[in-house]
Structure formats: structure tokens, C-alpha cells
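Practice problem 4.
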């Protein structure tokens, strides 16, 4: 017996991961909805405080010219 999780796109069930079943194998399918995982509440205020503590040394145009600084591409 093979079990897997997947999604229904309106026409077909798409497994979340590769399933090793020979093509055209007759199957009996039972659908059991899976409750979505609960996401923990994010403490956005604390996250902002942490982000503000992260000092990044580098040029002011680092984001705009990332390819130049990270990969040596010519500045356009």
C-alpha cells in the first residue's frame, strides 16, 4: 500500500512528492482531507527589533548593484 499527500487542482490529484507506481495501474482511492498546519503567530515587533540590530557593512547601493558586488558583473 502506498500513502502520500497531495493537492487536487480541480481535475487531478497531484502528489507533493514523486510516487513510484507503474503507469496505468488500477487504484482504489480514498480521499481524506488534511487540516492545514497552523502557523505560529509572528511577533512582528520583535522581528523588526532584531532586523534593526543587524548592521550591514557595505556600499549604499548594495541592493541595486548586487550582481556587481557579489558576482563581479560590470556596472551598467
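Answer key:
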Amino acid at each position: 500500500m502506498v500513502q502520500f499527500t497531495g493537492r487536487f487542482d480541480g481535475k487531478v490529484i497531484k502528489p507533493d512528492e514523486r510516487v513510484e507506481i507503474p503507469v496505468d495501474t488500477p487504484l482504489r482511492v480514498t480521499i481524506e482531507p488534511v487540516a492545514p498546519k497552523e502557523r505560529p503567530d509572528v511577533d512582528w515587533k520583535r522581528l523588526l527589533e532584531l532586523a534593526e540590530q543587524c548592521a550591514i557593512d557595505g556600499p549604499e547601493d548594495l541592493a541595486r548593484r548586487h550582481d556587481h558586488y557579489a558576482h563581479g558583473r560590470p556596472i551598467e
